[in-house]
Each structure stands twice: as C-alpha cells, then as structure tokens.
Amino acid sequence: MRVKPEQLFLGLSLSDEATFDNFFASAQSENALVVSSLLNFFDDPQENFIYLWGGSGSGVTHLLQAICHHAQEKKLSFQYLPLRELVGFSPEELCRSLDGLDLICFDGAEAVMGRQDWENELFHLFNRIKSAQHKLIIAANAPARELPIQLPDLSSRLQWGLTLHLHNMTDTEKQSALQMRAKARGLELNDEVAQYLIQRLSRDTNELFWQLQRLDNASLQEQRKLTIPFVKKVLGLA
Which among 54, 161, 183, 184 could bridge 60 via Cys, Cβ 3.0 to 4.6 Å? Predict the structure, then answer.
C-alpha cells in the first residue's frame, strides 16, 4: 500500500530530549555560535537558509529537532525529515507536500545527493521556500562542496546562505554533557564515574547518552547511586 506524505509525517516524531536547553556547548566555542545562530534564525527575515554539517555523534540531529521544538513554541508550522529513512519515497510528492510550512529541516542530505530526482526536487523546493520567505535547514555529514551533487545549481544554492559547522565534542565536553543530562534526570554523576564511562564506552555521544538512560532506569529500579561497581554490573563491563 502506498504511503502518503501526510501519513509518513505522523511517524516522524521529535525526541523530547532534543532541545536547545539539553545541548551542551562550551562557552565561546564554535558550537556555542552554532546554537546561537539557530536560536536567532527566526529573528532575521533576510535569512532563509542554513546549511549545517557535522560528523557522526556531533549532535546535528539533536539541533535540527531542537529548532523544530523552538518553532513549535513559537506556534510555527514545521517538519523534520531524516532523509536516510526517506530515500525510497517519491521526492516530488514529498517535497510538494511541504509547501507552506514555516520551517523545513532535512537531516542526512548526503543520503540523496547524486540522485537526479531528489536533487531536482530539492532545488525547486529551495526556490519556492525563498520566494515564500520561509525557512529551510539542510544538514549533512560534510561541507556542501564535498557532497557528490550532480546538479550544479543545487550545489551553488547550498552554499548561498549561512553555513554552520558543528564540531565533535572533546572528552572534557562529553563529560560535562553527560553530567548535564544526568542532572536533568535527577541523577548524580560524579567526575570519576563520568570519566569511567567515557574511557570504557564508545566515544560516540549518542551511545553515551543511551547508556546513561540505561543507568538511570537501573538506578531507579534498584534505588542505587551511580558508582563504578554498579555501572560495571548494569552495563556488563569487566
């Protein structure tokens, strides 16, 4: 059975935790400037497009969903679209169904670049959004000039507006981010345990935050504080 775009969008929900308040960026860092630029996006009527890029685990998806939450707070219409999951859908139908929205966020654009049908529709959508003075954010894992884009006009469009680079966190920043997330959950995560998690687990922030959720659930169930022996037991670490 064919899935209509409107039905598809119903399944593309935002994570409750993906907010600006829940994103750690060191003061005066480039990532802090990225967050500030996104927060101010709706305040500049001349700025219609942002190209956001960053490596795996940098937090690109988090920030795209955060600005959608921000749009929701402002009573604006929006749609978040993870392109890796939408490659098999008709780009013409999907892009046409987005007309009229105040904000559109495409995640994982690298998944559709090199495909003529997707590139053409994204190019036309870009032009319609610009004419309507709405907002568009396209995110990928590399700068626009490094993507395998076949349509020169689309390549130039992606380099027109504001380009933001989200850097992967240092281990020190990951520790602060973990402790911030833990505090938001009402969980005490001291320096020793936080450093242990970063040293023993994948340094990918998505993985670290997922394991923190496991620890939070176990801590609640067993009424235990987070200690290294308890962490070892819950996560099966030797």
Answer: 54
Q: What is the C-alpha to C-alpha distance for residues 122 and 102, in angstroms, rounded to an integer?
A: 16
Q: How far is CA 144 from CA 25, 122, 162, in A?
A: 24, 14, 12
One DSSP character per residue, 40-108 reads TGGG-TT--EEEEE--TTSSHHHHHHHHHHHHHHTT--EEEEEGGGTTTS-HHHHHHTTTT-SEEEEE-
pLDDT of residue 1: 37
**Boundary-marking domain end, from 165, 187, 206:** 165
- Residue whose C-alpha is closest to residue 193's, from 222, 151, 235: 235
pTM: 0.90
Tell how strand 103-107 and strand 49-53 pair up: unpaired
Structurally, the chain folds into a number of domains equal to 2
Contacts of 27 (CB under 8 A, 6+ apart): none
**Same domain (yes/no): 158, 175:** no
The band of 203, judged by pLDDT with boundaries at 50, 70 and 90, is confident
